[in-house]
Amino acid sequence: MGTWLMQSVRHFLLAIQFFTRIPVTGRLAQWVGYSPAMLRASSAHFPAVGWVVGGLTALVFALWMHLLPPLPASAWLAAVLSTVFSVWLTGAFHEDGLSDTVDGLGGGLTREQVLDIMKDSRIGAFGTLALILAMGTKWGLLVLLSQISTPLAVVGLFAAHVTSRLMPLFLIRHMAHVGHLTTSKSKPLADRIDRSSVFVGVLWWVACMTLAKQWLPLGILLVACVASALAALYMARCLQQRLQGFTGDGLGATQQLAEVAFYLGLAWAAYQP
Description:
Layout: H1 2-19, H2 26-32, H3 36-42, H4 46-67, H5 72-90, H6 93-107, H7 111-119, H8 125-148, H9 150-174, H10 195-212, H11 218-243, H12 248-270
Helix pairs in contact: 1-3, 1-4, 4-5, 4-9, 4-10, 5-8, 6-7, 6-8, 6-12, 8-9, 8-12, 9-10, 9-11, 9-12, 11-12
């Protein structure tokens, strides 16, 4: 039990190191270690990264809502500044995946063309539009949620980051990796994760929902989760049809789409009489 717990802590810290700017350096980094197998195992803790990123982003949103005057523009500013913080904290890791994926799917005709475009570090018109639309929709939904109630937006932010990071685990589990194995950032995920990794991810999500329902009705949260899952399913279907599998960029796009869908589902459910 002690060995399993220590390995889990290592995998969690490796996920934090890989998916955020939070420093895991020096002796701590030496203790954590690194190997492709460890990085693959750390995928179980993707939702735990959502706990950190979502928790801090929700705190930033709540802080600005408290500091700014009670005016309509304040919610917009809080939404933008909290998003800027989350993008900085993650190094735009998932946003980059979204832009590359949309560039590839929008500009490539064949499977090989799509993969080549997704590998290109330059952003194209499709990717630019995707980022603008995704960010604008995210800000608008956060403002809408805050107008219904500030706790709804704050707790929703936290839960959305956790839930949206659970969804890529199902793609990794059930789909083949089709990225360029020599250059892909998701190369360690080329081997499918096992059920225990998905189970650990689900446990992180269940813990999140248990905490979130202290402030929000469970029914509203579940509607938002269903919306998030449907968005992930749509993304998986697109990737399977066009690429016959997933790429690291595709996982990032899935997270972004699932996050926006969570806000949309939450807003719809919260406003029902």
